[in-house]
Each structure stands twice: as structure tokens, then as C-alpha cells.
Amino acid sequence: MSRRTWRYLFLLAAALCALLAVWAGYEWNRRITSWSSPRMLAIQRQYESLLDAADKTIQGPEYAAKYGLKNEILDDMLFHIVTSNLSAEDLRRLAATCGTLPTDDNHWSPFTRDVFSYMMQSIVDSGDRDLVLKTLSTRCPDCIWYYDLVEYYLADREDKLKEPVLLLGEAYFRCRNPEVRHHIATAVRRSFTSSGIRGKDDAEFVSNAMQWCAKEREHLILNPRHRLRGRIPPYEEDDPNFRWLLQFDKMPPLFVERGR
User: Which of 17, 67, 121, 242 is disulfide-compatible with 235, CB 3.0–4.6 A?
Assistant: First the structure.
């Protein structure tokens, strides 16, 4: 092959690489409009590539130095990928399209779970009660950030939202998806069964719980015993390892009287 042909092939390869780099940059900077937008998928690939690299690293001194003894460095790295690539507007658009996610959060990937948690944190911190309500009535996971039950997460942010726990009741009656309604009702039963609330079905229980909470809230404080201690993986309702989360009468109530 002549030198001229080699030079031509080299220039062609360089042009192709440049074109691919431009395209990659274009994909990365495209506006996120949904959970399946090209840039969203690019962020997910970066996130999952890091997780895959950690999974392939043998546990020991090398792993601890790189990812932390308890994955604390890895968690920070994953958190940075999510937070550094998603703007407040991106998160609002994701909230508006979260109806495309599986209704059962047990079927969410770690990436989806972290993005949803960050999205919820962002819109709660913004004080946008309407968007929080719309999001919860569309998809309601058991936990935010793995370690806060969704009801505890909301109740702990009264400085951001007015009467945030009542959002669960509003979300329940707004929701038209039976599976999501069941998830919301489960959160309400976890919160108020030990406070003596009862109901012949989910709708009556949620209604009674919200009325009781609205009436008694000024005499109550958030109960730290209701908060999870450490991370738990997503659980299935028929998994015996996590049945305790469905023993509503044994769950510490979400609120207790002041002074107790």
C-alpha cells in the first residue's frame, strides 16, 4: 500500500474520530426531556460503568482505598455523577415524566432510585408542593435515599413544605393507578396504625389518618424511632426478610405526643 494511501486512510480515521467526538458531545449536551432521553442514558452508562468497575474489584486494601471500607467513597462518586449532570430544570422534567417508570420501585435500577431520590430532594427543597404532590401521586417509592421511609422523609421537612405528610393523603386520592395507590396506603398504614387509626379499607384508613393528623399535628412531634437505621435494599412484600415493614401495628408511630 502506497504512502499516499496510508496518509488518506489516516486522515479518514482522524476525521471519523473527530465526528464521533462531536456526536458524543452533542448527545451529552442534549436537553433531558424524559427518563429515556439520550443524555439521560449517557449519564446512566457512566453511573453503571463505575458500579461495574467496583463490582469487578476484589475486596481488600485496594478496594477500600479506591471505594471505601463501606463503599462511602463509591457512594460519593455515584452521587457526584447524578448531581453534577442534572440541573433543577432537568429534574423538573424528569418529575413530569416519572409515569414511565415501573410502578413497583423494586424494579428500579440503582441509578433510577438515586436519580428519583435526588429529584425528590430538589423539588421538596424548592418548596414546590404541587410538583411534590404530582410526583407522589404518579410514583411513590418506599424509601428516599434507601434509609428514609418516604413518610419520614416528608415529615422531616416541614421547614420546606406546609404540612408535608398530608401530601400522602392528597396523593392517594389523586392517584388512579391501583398499584401506586397501594404503595401510598402502605406508607400511611406504617405511619399511623400504631397511633390507633383504623379503617375498613385503604381509602377509609387514609382518610381517617389524614383527618387525625390535621387535627392533632400541633400537639405531636416527629418520632425518630420511625426512621430506618442504615440502608436496606428494595423489598418485595412476600420476602420474609422484610415482612416487618408490613407489620403496621409493630412499627413505631410516625408522630408521638410532645414530652413523651
Answer: 242
